[in-house]
Amino acid sequence: MPAGNDNGPEIKAAPALRDKLRKLGLVRRDDLILHFPLRYEDETRITPIAEAPGDGPVQAEVDVFDVSVQFRPRRQLVVRVADDTGELVLRFLNFYGSQTRQFEKARDEKRKLRVFGEIRRGFLGAEMVHPRCRLVGTEETLPASLTPVYPTVAGVSQSVLRKLITAALADSDLLELLDPEWCSRHSLPGFEKAVRTLHAPPPDVSEGALQSRVHPAWRRVKFDEVFAQQLSLRRAYVARRQKGAPVLHSSGQLARNLLASLPFSLTSAQQRVGDEIAADLAQPFPMQRLLQGDVGSGKTIVAAVAACHAIDAGYQAAFMAPTEILAEQHYLKLRAWLTPLGVEVAWLAGSLKKQIKRVMQERAAGSAHLVVGTHALIQESVDFARLGLAIVDEQHRFGVAQRLELRRKGYNPHQLMMSATPIPRTLAMSYYADLDVSVLDELPPGRRPITTKLVSDVRRSEVIARVRGSVAAGRQAYWVCPLIEESEKLQLQTAIDTHGALTAELPDLRIGLVHGRLKADEKAATMAAFAAGEIDVLVATTVIEVGVDVPNASLMVIEHAERFGLAQLHQLRGRVGRGEHDSVCVLLYQTPLSETARARLKVIYENTDGFEIARHDLHLRGPGEFVGSRQSGVPLLRYADLEADTDLIEWAHALAEQMLRDDPERANRHLVRWLGGREEMLRA
């Protein structure tokens, strides 16, 4: 067994046990030290049977006076015990012969038995079902601390974990890596004290503070965890600034020509963010900026201006989107804006016929100034002549590897990532600390407020009548079919059935259908017809979630809205309210609603601000799902809570920059302790 490496000694155990521990993320001694209890059990005192409350587990010390196997109503082991205050029945529905012999030994040798469990009182007296039991010696004292209960996996018992963790604590010096004065100022205990308190809390500690994780020992551990994450991300940020990138010095003339040709002016937020991006592009290190803004805040024109700066400087820009519908919407919009200015815009998608695709690939490798497309942009066969800027829309839908692949298409091009799913401040500070973040916090003038209505499925006929009335008034409508996670085929069939039902109900209306299984040219033709007003009602799956812009569509019906997540509902709702007419989004739901679904629908009904919705979404789903594909590049937090521990995140954010600058060796030791030198998140 290897003694260890720079990341600390490995756990000494049999190979089979090591494999099981690895499933828990336990490889090194430090991993054991940082494997903290889920909860605690109080075995520091004995409770007389007659005085035991019925609302929680207690420990009793008893004598065994009868052991029997009974068969009614089913086979079970029944052990009768007593102390000075009363009798108790221990009942085991699944048991082994060794257990029976243990109790018989206690009875025959008059040995004391300690039992731990919840005492229930009923018609037949007091009983414990499946308590934890062990024989005790005459001189055996009570434990001095609460008993920890650790997260585990099958095949690793609590006693094995406790022995391993106790040994690890005995072998480690638990070196303090933070300034004690800084800790004192922030009311955080020393590292060793915090760790030992959590693994072996003294009996007088507040069990409530431990369980709710607000005890100072928990606060210190949570800070250290967040601090490791911040150090890692900040180090990635610094490392990126040491890489070279094309310096995109632009005269700004192309961007000015674009803005002069538009029928609208930029908002002050768009101007501010545009200036931030232009300043980044002129630096000799690669920009990695996240541009976030609510639905309809105008991210595409900001990206177009950024592309103009790259093109003006003699470089190419690439614009990648996750779906063909969204990518094509961007392509059509960007081509309309830029082609009159002499910019060559190329389109590249996987569905293109081979001959056309070859031509587009040749243009990307040669004359094209801007190439718009899907994942097809990162295929091996695609080369760029001089890629200076890579723009990734809906960046959370792409994995780390895919974003890196686009960056490899040029000499470290600058990267602008865009998201219409606003990221709550604490999440941005915690998981996106390696990026520069720009926020479009202002909607362009003219965006109409959207009225949201919650309607039960039993009133479906009223909703159909509302669609008929909207079309009669000269408007158009979307009808979005439910999200069916179990099967794409089911979702497709639901869309086809809904299209058939609405066609029968509304025979005088022109009803279109778009879904993910249609060929690209069929999808494009349907969307173009809807945009041109040749389709009154568009039945669609969630392929229209982002990017679709039809100003005359002022009504959206989302069927089975309870099946959608908050971010999706908000994105879908943002497809209306883009023109001069008042818009309505009808959330059609089926009863009964689960508590989670009810909470989601309440949030979307009461809020139109994407950032507020995102905050609720984070609370309902947790950071793991919210971060999405970025998980593969950033360590998730096990102990800290983004909502409850905002102050810890802010302290860690500030201290990380300071320690990396003033004491990089100590920063590295902290990273090794918490991440084991596993710095794969730097790839993000």
Q: What is the multimeric organization of the chains shown?
A: single chain
- How would you sum up the global shape? globular
The name of the CATH architecture of the largest domain is 3-Layer(aba) Sandwich
Total beta strands? 22
Which structural class best describes the helix and strand composition?
alpha/beta
Q: What is the CATH homology-level superfamily of the largest domain?
A: P-loop containing nucleotide triphosphate hydrolases
The CATH class name of the largest domain reads Alpha Beta
Approximate helicity band: 25-40%
Rounded Rg: 32 Å
N- to C-terminal separation?
Answer: 33 Å
Strand % is 15-25%
CATH fold call of the largest domain: Rossmann fold
Low-confidence stretches: 1-5, 680-684
Give the overall pLDDT as a whole number. Answer: 87
Widest sheet: strand ordering: 6-7-4-3-2-5-8
Q: What key attributes describe this structure?
A:
684 residues; alpha/beta; OB fold (Dihydrolipoamide Acetyltransferase, E2P); Rossmann fold; seven-stranded mixed beta sheet; seven-stranded parallel beta sheet; 22 strands; disordered N terminus
Report on this structure.
The protein has 684 residues and is an alpha/beta fold. It has four domains: 15-40 and 149-212, no CATH class; 45-142, Beta Barrel (OB fold (Dihydrolipoamide Acetyltransferase, E2P)); 253-440, P-loop containing nucleotide triphosphate hydrolases (Rossmann fold), CATH 3.40.50; 450-607, Rossmann fold (3-Layer(aba) Sandwich), CATH 3.40.50. The protein is built from 24 helices and 22 strands. Strands 6-7-4-3-2-5-8 form a seven-stranded mixed sheet. The longest helix is centred in the middle third of the chain and has 26 residues, at 216-241. It is globular and about 100 Å long. Mean pLDDT is 87; it is low at 1-5 and 680-684.
